[in-house]
From TrEMBL:
One of its GO terms (molecular function) is isomerase activity. It comes from Spirosoma radiotolerans. InterPro entries: IolE/XylAMocC-like, Xyl_isomerase-like_sf, Xyl_isomerase-like_TIM-brl. This is Xylose isomerase. Keywords: Isomerase. The keyword Isomerase applies.
Amino acid sequence: MGFNVLAWSAVMSEKLNPITERLKNIGYDGIECFIDNQDVAAYHRFGDHLTQLGLQRTCVMVVGPDQNPVSESAKIREQAVSFLKEAIDRAHAMGATVICGPMHSAFATFSRREPQPDEYARSAEVLHAAGEHAKQANIILAPEALNRFECYLCNTMSQLLDLIRQADHPNVRAMFDTHHANMEEKRFPDAIRTIAPVLAHVHISENDRGTPGDGHIPWDDTFRTLAELNYNGWMTIEAFTRNDIDFANSINVWREYNDPWNIAENGLKFIQEMQAKYAR
């Protein structure tokens, strides 16, 4: 079980050290952090701190228009591969085993048409190249389907599965996020079963991005289906606040949902209760 420290900051720094210490004391197995453009040495230092705490780690990332894997421009696609490789190097320096996020296409960048077959093909080619680099670092890339207001290439597990199959690389798998699925999927069990063959990471996220269990996500369907599939990967809470104003503004978070420690403490209890309920 993990917790995404984006609830406090999108910037990795020593300011996160006491937060990660408290997350360890609460009972988390690992933390997830956003990959920014800091020097690799900073990731080494943060990774050493987490190792001393006994915390495992995963990362999340996005790509922008200048690194868009679906771009018609060969130069931009080359920049996408380089950008992903640099992210992999930073994650490796930190000791992370998974990088998740909407790395298949530029965040909140729209073509004003439905996704095209050649866009999937270009994205798959970029992901395959990045997968080769990730293999050397023993890192799994787990692209994420987002809701229609943040992405157009992959909104559903069906679309994401097709993309992962086209990428055709063992280090390129997939993530399921309950927040986005709440908007885009008909039924959670069907969506989870669709992505199950390549599922490598799960984000536990409430419909309002607050404390898991406080909203209307179909949690029983979620945990029951994951248990039936014997899923044993990460379940990482991703919740947002306005603690990091720049990051909050960039993803349209305009109000507080819950205090981050409320999310961390009660969210962990909720996951543990649901896991116990559907233990096999």
